[in-house]
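Reminder to self: tokens first, then the designed residues, so the page reads top to bottom the way the pipeline ran.
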């Protein structure tokens, strides 16, 4: 402490001594000086007032702004689909910010408040590049849609009754997602070392619909129920990161530690289930009573990462990294024991090599390797399992190894054309796929032991004339042993993009994408209780067509007009396995999903005081499921599935805004928004939302 005090006195005394120096002392400083290397050459004396140039003064620029207003909501019918991301309640709004840019200090603070579920705030501070602090908070609200139950009109052949029970038929659901972020970066003085700390938090709160079933085939005459109810949501995720990076001559080294923890603060649902005794149709008989269900277990993940890379500006750049992580299930169930013993160990290895010998050619090679070693208990206990000791066997966890190799190149022979190519190979191996024997029957997941995905793309970029840019891409992908029924075995893809601009007055963009996917390997083997096992071939063919065209024009400086049209369409032809109480049957089906988006926009600056804007948009969507007619049983057919599954909706929106500048620093604005959702075949979620926002803002 005494040494620090002495140093502090010396440092603070130096400038005082210079200021209080006498004329004689100043003359002594300016006497002739002889330097040894000058061989006695005399140096002309220079006055300190002229030898030390004044430090360049950098003016600090500061901008401050604030706004206040009110949002009015008008809702007709159900507005949750019309405005999915709006908290549908009128409220005041506030907006403020300050931006200060100086030589040593850089400071930015801004925030917006719409309501208690929609807001954001951001703070950034930098001191000489040595200290950096970033704080951010934001929240977004999302309206959730509830499924509405209907009573089945076809009785079960075996006499079992099915009852749909909705305990919250009038409930409205929604979630607010709040994120908080804190980042700090510190650079050690005179050392090429940085310390990075950050903390991230995600909170989802609100309510959602929960659907669960108490269902089985037997005993005869027992009611099987499907229940819908409201569930409180309170999920919290915390994540912390610690990082250190250092520049050590030819390489940079980085170490990072991450820990993420998820917690569910809401209680696990508990409801009454009837007893299911031993029978031919009950694989796991259970006792009756109030039981926990639909649990969202807590979990924790942590990882250590080490990275090395050479200079990122050289002709040859290399990088490598290794990550070791562990993910743990931290279930706190009381009805079930042993679930908290499950954990995953992850190891990731990565390596990159980039070669750029000249300005017109570059190539890169990337390698990724991941190992997932899953550990789970061989058995768990359940208080309601009607087995000896309430013990249930558990399917062995599937381990996985995955390797990904990516090679790219880019050739630019001249300024008018560029060629790019990429190959990506993804190779997955799985272990512990042996059949798992549960009471009375053997089953397996049906996943392949290995899957290989090879994908190649070739792209041409061109500028044939001034103002015109073209892009063409072709890609081919082949998959050996697709993992799932929706996975493709072979895929062809093509893309075309053209943009054109003329004299900053007219512009146009056109994009088209076509893709063709096939899978001839898809199949399913049934384990039927009523007939011998049967293998069904389920081939799948999918076509995708996406197109977008947009045009903008600015006839004069005050006006800009734009229009666009987009088509998103895909159709899948696939054999589907229909199951009923009798053995299932496979039949051909066609599923079509299509959306069309029309939009018009205009921005008009009437004069220096008044700005006007108008935006119109309409989205037409439809989905059709068309199965081949099949008689599944004497009372069950595929007739009516097409009409019952049709969807055809229209979403319309209008937005208008006017900004009037009362003075150089003061502006008032009015914003109007109209949103409408209309379903042609079902009016349950139809609704209209109108929003009027008026605010006054000031800047100085």
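Designed residues (700 positions):
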């Amino acid at each position: 402490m005494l040494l620090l005090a002495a140093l502090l006195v010396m440092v603070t005394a130096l400038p005082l001594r210079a200021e209080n120096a006498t004329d004689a002392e100043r003359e002594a400083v300016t006497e002739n000086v002889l330097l040894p290397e000058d061989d006695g050459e005399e140096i002309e004396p220079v006055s300190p007032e002229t030898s030390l140039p004044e430090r360049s003064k950098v003016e600090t620029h500061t901008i401050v702004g604030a706004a206040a207003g009110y949002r009015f909501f008008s809702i007709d019918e159900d507005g949750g689909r019309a405005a999915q991301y709006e908290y549908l309640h009128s409220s005041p709004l506030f907006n403020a910010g300050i931006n200060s840019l100086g030589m040593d200090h850089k400071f930015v603070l801004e925030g917006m408040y719409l309501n208690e579920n929609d807001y954001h705030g951001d703070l950034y501070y930098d001191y000489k590049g040595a200290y950096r602090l970033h704080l951010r908070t934001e929240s977004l609200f999302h309206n959730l849609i509830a499924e509405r139950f209907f009573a089945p009109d076809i009785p079960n052949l075996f006499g079992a009754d099915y009852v749909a029970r909705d305990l919250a038929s009038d409930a409205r659901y929604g979630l607010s997602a709040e994120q908080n972020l804190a980042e700090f970066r510190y650079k050690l003085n005179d050392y090429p070392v940085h310390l990075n700390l950050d903390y991230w938090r995600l909170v989802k709160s609100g309510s959602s619909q929960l659907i669960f079933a108490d269902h089985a085939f037997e005993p005869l005459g027992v009611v099987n129920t499907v229940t819908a109810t409201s569930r409180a949501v309170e999920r919290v995720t915390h994540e912390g990161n610690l990082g250190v990076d250092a520049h050590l001559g030819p390489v940079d080294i980085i170490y990072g530690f991450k820990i993420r923890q998820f917690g569910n603060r809401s209680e696990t649902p508990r409801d009454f289930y009837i007893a299911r005794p031993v029978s031919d149709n009950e694989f796991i008989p259970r006792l009756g009573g109030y039981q926990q269900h639909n649990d969202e277990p807590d979990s924790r993940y942590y990882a250590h990462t080490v990275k090395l890379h050479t200079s990122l500006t050289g002709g040859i750049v290399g990088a490598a990294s290794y990550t070791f992580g562990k993910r743990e299930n931290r279930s706190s169930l009381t009805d079930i024991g042993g679930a908290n013993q499950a954990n995953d160990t992850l190891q990731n290895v990565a390596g990159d090599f980039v070669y750029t010998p000249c300005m017109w050619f570059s190539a890169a090679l990337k390698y990724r390797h991941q190992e997932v070693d899953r550990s789970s208990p061989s058995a768990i206990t359940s208080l309601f399992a009607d087995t000896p000791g309430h013990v249930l066997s558990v399917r062995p966890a599937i381990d996985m190894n995955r390797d990904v190799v990516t090679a790219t190149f880019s050739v630019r022979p001249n300024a008018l054309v560029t060629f790019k190519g990429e190959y990506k190979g993804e190779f997955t191996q799985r272990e512990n796929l042996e059949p798992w024997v549960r009471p009375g029957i053997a089953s397996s997941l049906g996943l392949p032991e290995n899957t290989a995905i090879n994908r190649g793309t070739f792209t041409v970029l061109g500028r044939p004339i001034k103002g015109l840019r073209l892009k063409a891409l072709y890609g081919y992908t082949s998959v050996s042993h697709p993992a799932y029924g929706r996975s493709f075995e072979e895929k062809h893809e093509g893309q075309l993009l053209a943009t054109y601009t003329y004299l900053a007055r007219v512009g146009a963009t056109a994009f088209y994408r076509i893709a063709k996917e096939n899978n001839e390997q898809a199949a399913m083997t049934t384990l039927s209780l009523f007939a011998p096992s049967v293998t069904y071939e389920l081939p799948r063919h999918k076509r995708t067509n996406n197109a977008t065209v947009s045009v903008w024009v600015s006839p004069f400086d005050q006006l800009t007009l734009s229009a666009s049209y987009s088509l998103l369409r895909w159709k899948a032809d696939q054999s589907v396995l229909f199951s009923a109480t009798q053995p299932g049957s496979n039949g051909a089906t066609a599923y079509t999903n299509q959306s069309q988006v029309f939009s018009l926009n205009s921005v008009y600056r009437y004069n220096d005081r008044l700005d006007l804007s108008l935006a119109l948009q309409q989205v037409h969507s439809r989905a059709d499921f068309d199965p081949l007619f099949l008689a599944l049983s004497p009372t069950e057919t595929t007739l009516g599935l097409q009409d019952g599954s049709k969807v055809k909706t229209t979403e319309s929106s209008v937005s208008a805004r006017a900004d009037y500048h009362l003075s150089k620093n003061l502006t008032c604005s009015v914003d109007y928004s109209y949103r409408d959702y209309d379903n042609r075949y079902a009016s349950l979620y139809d609704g209209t939302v109108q929003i009027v926002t008026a605010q006054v803002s000031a800047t100085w």
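Residues 120 and 138 are 4 Å apart (CA to CA).
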